[in-house]
């Protein structure tokens, strides 16, 4: 699935307005984050979008230690 451009912009801008609207997993690291996470922005082609943190964990992604996307 390609990354919607609004989501990509939210990731690049660390836009917290999108937190809890979606999460993104990074294929190369196996970690998932909130849009507002301050970690380095991954390559767009390595991003996988999830609507829910549980779905990311079900897909074997680990929650990021910086943005704690598994906490409500
Ligand atoms: Zn993160």
TrEMBL record:
GO biological process: DNA repair; regulation of DNA-templated transcription
Keywords noted in UniProt: Activator
Domain Ada DNA repair metal-binding positions: 7-70
Recorded GO MF terms: DNA binding; methyltransferase activity; zinc ion binding
Transmembrane region(s): none
A Pfam family recorded for this sequence: Ada_Zn_binding
Top-level taxon of origin: Bacteria
Record carries keyword Ribosomal protein: no
UniProt-recorded name of the protein: Ada DNA repair metal-binding domain-containing protein
Species classification: Bacteria, Bacillati, Bacillota, Bacilli, Bacillales
């Amino acid at each position: 699935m390609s990354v919607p451009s609004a989501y990509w912009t939210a990731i690049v801008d660390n836009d917290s307005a999108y937190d809890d609207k979606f999460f993104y997993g990074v294929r190369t690291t196996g970690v998932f984050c909130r849009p507002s996470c301050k970690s380095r922005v991954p390559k767009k082609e390595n991003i996988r979008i999830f609507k829910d943190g549980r779905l990311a964990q079900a897909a074997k992604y680990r929650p990021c230690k910086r943005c704690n996307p598994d906490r409500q």
